[in-house]
Specification:
Chain lengths: 134, 175, 98
């Protein structure tokens, strides 16, 4: 239980965000609110990855070269245990940007739906779609 | 239906703040080598500065800052810059995206440095243009009236009437 | 219907908490991302990136070197995704003048 207060609470917080996002997707009837729920779930996943990328007594993965500019790089010795793992940060940069792009296209589709059917409520939308087909 | 916030104080504040946002965005793009940052972050901030003007003053006035027609070509140019640096290396006999193959005559670590910078600039251009284009497609006011394609949900005749800002020229003083 | 949704959410939360209980401690030195050698004996990719970023690219920021040099192909894919999203929005929403 001690490790919970040390660092494990991060995972519980992101799990809570995931459940909140899933609640929004399942329960809300407005399509825009469902989309926001998906965004919340995506934010939770990104936080999980970034929270997992830590190391004891490590710092940000940026070298401090203040005294060494002009110094040839091949003589710099970097100990990997001093720096955080940079790979999850890199992958999550990609994930954030892809999330933004997907949300943009989803909003474009929602505007199209509104122009076509006049509503964004899921029950009313299904009724109008069935009314056209039936 | 007016899509910008029509207030003089908001417009003045936005005009004052936008150059600083753009300067900071350029700083973030070019200092991706030395501090957290890079192409995506700086590109998003640059797009935010363009959207600030569109939201506070209106799309018509914002055409002087970033034209609506530059959105999609800008994203193409950014992607082509990225692909271009990759293909230059490929055509010169190295692997694709191997920055050591750029024909600049510098030692290899500095070639990779410049290759990373070129790629980040390309990504920043693409991200800026795409985010602004997405906003213009979703929300942007129509600059020219549509002549056909009326649908039942939006009323075009209402949407095309743009109110004046309510600012009248001051009366000339007598005497 | 409401009760079904509640049951689904509680089951999902229970599954997540069970999974969290079995994760390695956050920041443990023997967690798989932090090892110097993976379990199969190959060198850990992140260790190589951290140790050689400045030597290979004369750039202090290891995340940028990883993003644009070591994993540059993924960044190319991501830029293509951004481009495709812009084009998709334009195709869905722009209506031609007749």
């Amino acid at each position: 239980m001690a490790e919970f207060w040390d660092g494990g609470y991060a995972y519980v917080a992101t799990a809570l965000l995931l459940v909140i996002g899933l609640y929004a997707v399942l329960v809300k009837r407005n399509l825009v609110k469902k989309l926001i729920g998906l965004n919340i779930m995506q934010a939770a996943i990104i936080l999980t990855w970034v929270a997992a990328a830590t190391r004891p007594d490590a710092t940000v993965p940026v070298l401090d070269t203040h005294g060494e500019h002009g110094h040839h790089g091949a003589e710099t010795v970097v100990a990997a245990a001093d720096y955080l793992n940079p790979l999850p940060h890199t992958l999550m940069l990609t994930a954030i940007v892809v999330g933004v792009a997907t949300t943009g296209v989803a909003f474009a589709l929602l505007i199209s739906i509104y122009r076509r059917y006049g509503t964004l409520d899921e029950g009313e939308l299904l009724r109008r779609m069935r009314g056209e087909a039936g | 239906m007016r899509e910008y916030y029509d207030d003089r104080i908001v417009a003045l504040s936005a005009r004052l703040v936008t150059p600083f946002i753009q300067l900071f965005a350029l700083y973030v793009i070019f200092h991706g080598h030395y501090s957290p940052g890079g192409g995506f972050q700086g590109g998003a901030m640059l797009a935010a500065s363009f959207l600030l003007i569109r939201l506070s003053i209106g799309t018509d006035a914002a055409q002087y800052q970033f034209r609506r027609a530059w959105g999609t070509p800008g994203s193409s140019i950014g992607t082509l810059v990225f692909l271009g640096t990759g293909f230059i290396a490929a055509f010169l006999g190295f692997n694709f995206l191997d920055y050591a193959g750029l024909p600049l005559g510098l030692p290899e670590p500095e070639l990779r440095n410049i290759g990373i910078l070129a790629v980040e600039v390309g990504v920043a251009i693409a991200v800026t243009a795409t985010l602004t284009a997405i906003y213009d497609d979703l929300v942007g006011e129509r600059l020219e009236p549509l002549t056909a394609g009326i649908d039942e949900a939006t009323d075009l005749a209402e949407a095309d009437q743009v109110d004046g800002s309510g600012w009248d020229a001051p009366e000339p003083a007598d005497g | 219907m409401r009760r079904l949704v509640l049951v689904v959410l509680l089951a999902f939360a229970a599954l997540l908490l069970y999974g969290i209980g079995h994760l390695p401690e956050r920041g443990a030195a023997d967690a798989p991302p932090n090892l110097a050698q993976s379990a199969a004996g190959s060198p850990n990719a992140a260790t190589y990136y951290v140790e050689n970023a400045y030597i290979d690219a004369e750039t202090p920021n290891m995340v940028t070197v990883t993003l644009a040099d070591y994993r540059g192909f993924d960044t190319l894919g991501e830029t293509t995704v951004i481009f495709a999203a812009g084009i998709a929005c334009a195709l869905i929403l722009r209506r031609a003048k007749r």
